Write a sequence for this structure.
């Protein structure tokens, strides 16, 4: 294999957590001919094996790391933080580590503290309302922006994670530092999530409106689609990005007040 | 024509205002074989004639009324109120009047005050971001709920407007009085409009987020799609429904605060 080719290949990939995001990543990578080892609960691993979302089922985190050049943490945010700490204890030099968490500063900070030199934060801009391996699909990443936050990682590590994103069909974008990333997603993703819940809750609790929800137009449906997202996962995301979410919420409320002048509050 | 058939036909229809809503209604009705006379500015009338969205171009409101069994007011809300007053001066007995305005109480009140016995309020739950005849299309009403607020109108009048909705391909729903209607749409349509603007404005004004708008996922795109709606038209709608919009805004803000506890404000 030439140096150029190795720079364009992700190598052997271990995916830890085979839910919607990890499971879909596995499906896309296996289709692209990448060697994928998976780790999750035994019943999920068995389903992922049968579905062709992984090639090999690992028995433990250590077992997964032994078989991989690149590890993808694909669990919920707090579990990813715990995995990072466990992984730091026996990761061999040169192992590249990335994640799929939608908040980037806390994981990046933890990786630096643990001395994981080749950690590259990742955030694919894709998803679905339902979580879990049952909801995963091979085209979830196709054509979507895949944000990379390299921090102090080596060019070699960044090239591997960029190759991972491309192999999954996504468009890697190296554009932001972790703080900027978390500020942007507070505006583009985290506040919209809170707003979708609040719209659905307000209409669902009003004694008159809730009897007429079947009359909703396509606008209400598309603005409350996110309200079906898993609440526990989102609570973690919002807590980890509390500072930036507060900033974006204040900006949103300022603009809402301005736009509401027509109704003379 | 049997009595049953006449009850199922809208008769000759005059559409006053050939924008997105009126123009699309005309296209659907002409396709369904209904006789349609249109009224708008001369250049819009000429385009609507050429596009087959109307059969006959009226020279004036009086001219349109002479040729119709059913008049559809399809102008913006305040213009519809003015048209209702003009129309009341020379409407012959038995003429059925309806409208497409998304706020129902003010027009219904005005029709009662003017002694228009056969006014049936209408609100098709459909639309698009762009307005004007250029954006009109024959399938805008297809399969959509079409709310009818009959007030004190006769069964004959209601049957005609119901037949109009069906001829346009929509699903007529007689379910609400005007006040209930306006309360429901405040939750399902008017507050979502304000929220879409506020989300787009907040992200567009933040010095970091606005540089990264191209990174938005499908959720942000679908939650801010409404922000491209015509502002002048929406200001009228919000002002005419101010009381109910305030109620729904308060409920939304209460739920947003509750959902934001995760970020410990």
């Amino acid at each position: 294999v030439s140096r150029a080719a190795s720079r364009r290949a992700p190598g052997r990939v271990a995916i830890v957590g085979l839910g919607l995001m990890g499971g879909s990543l596995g499906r896309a990578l296996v289709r692209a001919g990448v060697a994928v080892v998976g780790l999750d609960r035994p019943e999920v691993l068995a389903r992922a094996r049968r579905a062709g979302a992984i090639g090999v089922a690992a028995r433990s985190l250590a077992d997964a790391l032994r078989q991989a050049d690149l590890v993808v943490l694909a669990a919920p945010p707090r579990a990813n933080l715990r995995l990072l700490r466990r992984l730091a204890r026996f990761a061999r030099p040169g192992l590249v580590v990335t994640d799929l968490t939608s908040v980037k500063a806390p994981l990046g900070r933890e990786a630096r503290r643990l001395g994981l030199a080749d950690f590259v934060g990742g955030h694919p801009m894709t998803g679905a309302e339902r979580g879990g391996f049952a909801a995963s699909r091979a085209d979830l990443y196709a054509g979507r922006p895949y944000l990379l936050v390299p921090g102090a990682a080596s060019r070699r590590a960044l090239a591997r994670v960029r190759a991972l994103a491309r192999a999954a069909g996504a468009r890697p974008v190296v554009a932001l530092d972790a703080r900027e990333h978390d500020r942007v997603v507070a505006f583009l993703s985290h506040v919209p999530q809170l707003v979708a819940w609040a719209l659905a809750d307000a209409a669902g609790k009003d004694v008159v409106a809730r009897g007429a929800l079947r009359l909703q137009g396509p606008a209400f449906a598309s603005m409350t689609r996110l309200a079906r997202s898993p609440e526990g996962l989102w609570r973690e995301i919002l807590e980890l990005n509390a500072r930036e979410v507060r900033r974006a919420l204040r900006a949103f409320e300022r603009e809402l007040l301005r736009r509401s002048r027509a109704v003379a509050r």
